[in-house]
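Submission checklist for the structure archive. All mandatory fields must be present; incomplete records are returned to the submitter.

[x] Identifier: Signal recognition particle
[x] Organism: Pseudogemmobacter lacusdianii
[x] Residue count: 107
[x] Sequence attached
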Amino acid sequence: MIFRHLVMVGGLVAALMGSAPTAVLASDHCVTLSQLAAKIMEGRQNGVTLIDMMQLLKSDDEFANELMQTMVLTAYDLPGFSTDSMKKQAVTDFANNVALMCYKAEG
């Protein structure tokens, strides 16, 4: 299930990159997506409920809404941790994975 969500995020990121007019813009999108991923995982690791996170990230833009929902579901499929160091590592890993998919889609 986690792999399916990651593939969906990758596909959505690829679609987003396809609409970017320049590599600089694509790079900016990757930074933004990575930062969003970090905030989502940070909330997940700190006890924000799935329902609250989904409500918080609702968007009027259908594409953005689908992307954010997929990222949230992927984050919540991953384990929550109790130690600060493990929480921090989970946030970093999730943000890096989203950035990696984005940069790969860009090329």
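[x] Structure attached
Curator remark: The mean pLDDT is 82. The chain is about 80% helix and 0% strand.
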